[in-house]
Amino acid sequence: MSRDEMHALQSEKLVKIVAHAYNNSPFYKKRFDEHGVRPEDIRSIDDIVKLPFTVKKDLRDNYPFGMMCVPMTQILRLHASSGTTGKPIVVGYVQKDLDNWSEAVARCLTAYGLGNDDMVQIAYGYGLFTGGLGAHDGVTKIGATVIPTSSGNTQKQLQLMQDFGATALACTPSYALYMAEEIRKQGLDINNFKLKVGIFGAEPWTNAMRKELEEKLHIKAFDIYGLTEISGPGVGGECECQNGTHLWEDLYYPEIIDPVTLQPVEPGQKGELVFTTLDKWGMPMIRYRTRDLTYLNYDKCDCGRTAVRMGKILGRSDDMMIIRGVNVFPSQIESILLEFPEYEPYFLIEVDRINNTDTFDIQVEVKPEFYTDQVNELVRLRQRLTSRIQSVVGIQPAIKIVQPGTIERSTGKAKRAIDHRKFVE
Ligand code: ADP
Ligand code: ZN
Predict the structure, then answer these.
(1) Which ligand is nearest to the CA of 308?
(2) How close is the Cα of 414 to the center of ligand 1, in Å?
(3) What does the DSSP 8-state code read for residue 39?
(4) Taking a C-beta distance cutoff of 8 angstroms, is the pair 185, 206 a contact?
(5) Which ligand is nearest to the CA of 272?
């Protein structure tokens, strides 16, 4: 589609979805009214800058169903992702939303060169996380065969991958690297596998990592990008040129803004990615701030696709980290520590990647009056904190209790997390 045709299509869709959001959601009506903008003010996609932003906190404040724009009887599926504190953020889909989502994933898979003679092993987690089921519906849409292993149980994954002759593997790049390592450790011969394509995303990864995965697994590794609020994986994917991730902009309209001034940046400049869902009816997102930092390239791609390309995700404009595929916010750890009278609210998270697995270490301090040389007491205290964090955040940290006063007290912005992993070369 030419840029002009795309502009016309996006304009037509924006007018409809804005009216839908305003007329059916008390949240959006209030937000638009406060901002002094009415649906009639939106005549083309260029008018999008008149609309107010939506942020993660809005989803949390309206937990669980306050952002839905249709009666719950029309919602066919719910998914959820970690919010910035204990409560997850919840999204709901009507049939059309699920259709568009699988369409988006199908476009990615087609761009990777997959078709109905392929067999895709989905090792993204199935469940509330959008990865598993999102990829699943896309694979079904292109007529390929799904092997729905979900994540974990690596031994069995590898066995089935070999026995069934999976031609593509969908999982996080770090899990793929772990599998590659297991193949080597178990002395399996990669030539007995039929893999040719890797469908990797849900966390940032580098070209160096791509090279390693391609060499170890004898595949071509492609990026898939997405986020729960906008639908899930497949908001964009790479083509054979691997020179940027194409965004399916007739469904999910991207903008880049300056995260401080909130104004659009010059074309091609870096900033925060913002999405408006142009054809999502259960829970439309209007100018949703992803917090992901990147840039857009509108030049026609060598593959022939005209859909805009996004550069690698360069970082985030908030403090969210993705550890073993799970979103973790330092504020979650803080609020958990505050639940315990024994702990100080000071902590330091350190994340690294060792043997292809993310480490998640947290140093915490016990208040002097609870600090004891009774090792058993401290072990029990540590165990309680570990379980609490595991249940709220979803992954288990390695907690280290340090002497009172050890963690640096900051006079300015506290440094509460150090990420030693390298994402951008
Ligand atoms: P998902 O299920 O797609 O991981 P989440 O809502 O849990 O969705 O997390 C979305 C976030 O994950 C994105 O905002 C982004 O920070 C990160 N992410 C997803 N895919 C990629 C990717 N391909 N490259 C870099 N970061 C990614
Ligand atoms: Zn392309």
Answers:
(1) 2
(2) 26
(3) G
(4) no
(5) 1
Residue 259 CA to residue 265 CA, distance in Å, equals: 10
CA distances from 392 to 58, 87, 363, 388 (A): 20, 8, 18, 6
> What is the per-residue DSSP string for 95-145?
HHHHHHHHHHHHHHHHHTT--TT-EEEE-SPPSSSHHHHHHHHHHHHTTPE
Higher per-residue confidence, 372 vs 104: 104
CA–CA separation, 234 vs 212, rounded Å? Answer: 23
254 CB less than 6 Å from ligand 1? no
DSSP 226-247: EETTTTEEEEEEE-TT-SSEEE
Residue 148 CA to residue 125 CA, distance in Å, equals 9
Residue 125 near residue 325 (C-beta atoms within 8 A): yes
What is the overall mean pLDDT for the chain? 94
170 CA from centroid of ligand 1 (Å): 14
Task: End-to-end CA distance of the chain: give it in Å, rounded.
Answer: 34
pLDDT, tens digit (0-9, with 9 covering 90-100), for 128-146:
999 999 999 999 999 999 9
pTM of the model: 0.88
Tokens coding 155: 């031994």
Sign, Cα dihedral of 25, 29, 31, 37:
positive
